[in-house]
């Protein structure tokens, strides 16, 4: 019985020569390129031809992850026209776009928001900007939302 226990635990342990060989490999031997020329063109065309672009999981009316849902809720609360002002891409429908957008922006997570051709950030940054009032100022400046009309303007 003891023999079986010790033999099975040895079989699960990698041999020391494998560990030594792995340690000898450089930490960054090469980078895998995911961004094809056609995907890069798709991304660049989208962010230059639209004031507000979101690369997300799902669609604005049916987000498929909590972070994408949160960004859509933030934009809705801010007053963005979700059917007119927003151009969205469902990265779940296109694996090349899913990996390519991360390489394009050098940002590892989805969703990704672009306003007027500039990468703004993901869910955490959008939430911080929303809470600080910075997002409203940016959306107003870019003409993506209308200023609120005061109910009792001073005469």
UniProtKB/TrEMBL annotation:
Q: Pinpoint the Glutaredoxin domain residues.
A: 53-120
> From which residue to which does the signal peptide run?
none
Q: Gene3D superfamilies per the record?
A: Glutaredoxin
GO cellular component labels: mitochondrial matrix
Q: Does the keyword Metal-binding apply?
A: yes
Q: CDD domains of this UniProt entry?
A: GRX_PICOT_like
Write out the GO MF terms: 2 iron, 2 sulfur cluster binding; disulfide oxidoreductase activity; metal ion binding
Q: Which SUPFAM superfamilies match?
A: Thioredoxin-like
The reply to whether Metal-binding figures as a keyword in the UniProt entry is yes
GO biological process: any one? [2Fe-2S] cluster assembly
This protein's name: Monothiol glutaredoxin-5, mitochondrial
- What gene is behind this protein? GRX5
């Amino acid at each position: 019985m003891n023999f079986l226990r010790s033999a099975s635990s040895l079989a699960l342990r990698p041999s020391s020569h494998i560990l030594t060989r792995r340690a000898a490999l450089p930490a960054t031997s090469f980078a895998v390129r995911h961004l094809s020329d056609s995907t890069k063109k798709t991304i660049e065309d989208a962010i230059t031809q639209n004031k507000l672009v979101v690369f997300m999981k799902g669609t604005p009316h049916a987000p498929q992850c909590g972070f994408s849902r949160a960004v859509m809720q933030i934009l809705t609360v801010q007053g963005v026209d979700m059917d007119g002002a927003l151009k969205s891409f469902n990265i779940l429908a296109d694996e090349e776009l899913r990996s390519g957008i991360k390489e394009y922006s050098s940002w590892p997570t989805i969703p990704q928001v672009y306003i007027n051709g500039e990468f703004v950030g993901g869910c955490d940054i959008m939430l911080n900007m929303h809470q600080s009032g910075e997002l409203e100022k940016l959306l107003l400046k870019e003409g993506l939302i209308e200023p609120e009309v005061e109910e009792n303007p001073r005469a």
